[in-house]
Amino acid sequence: MCIFCDIVSGKAPSRKVYEDEQVIAFKDIYPQAPVHILIVPKKHIASVVEVSDEDGPLLVDIVTAAKKIAEQQGVAKRGFRLVANNGPDGGQTVNHLHFHLLAGDVMGRMC
Ligand code: AMP
Ligand code: ZN
Q: Among the four 59, 67, 85, 93, which has the fewest Cβ within 10 Å?
């Protein structure tokens, strides 16, 4: 059982802001910034480590979705952060690949 697969199938609710053939995006339930959207491939991939060569077009779709969502949310010009936490040390808590789109505030540097 995977909570993001349940959101993709409609079994679990979400506050959806974007959807296309390969990707869904919805508001994070515990927002860490004024704009905090999760961009999730509909295909279950556990993490970046599980991405394969055939997922290339999917990754392009995710980045394109991030751009569209940033424009839709009115943050494309001021900027945003796109983050994928991976594994226990990376702080990943949901084992279905996803990218956090964070915006609406000046963010401290992490690296
Ligand atoms: P990560 O910790 O990087 O794996 O990110 C998982 C994110 O999913 C966290 O920021 C959670 O707040 C968020 N999250 C968990 N369950 C839900 C849910 N049902 N709807 C929206 N966001 C969720
Ligand atoms: Zn899943």
A: 93
CA distance 52 to 89: 22
CB 82 within 8 A of CB 66: yes
Best CA proximity match to 75, nearest among 28, 107, 30: 107
pTM metric for this prediction: 0.98
Handedness of CA 41, 45, 50, 56 (dihedral sign): negative
Task: Give all strands (DSSP E) within the chain, no chain letters.
Answer: 16-19, 23-27, 35-41, 80-83, 99-103
Residue 47's nearest CA partner among 11, 14, 10, 90 is: 90
Ligand nearest to the CA of 48: 1
Residue 1 has pLDDT above 90, yes or no: no
Cβ–Cβ under 8 Å, residues 76 and 50 = no
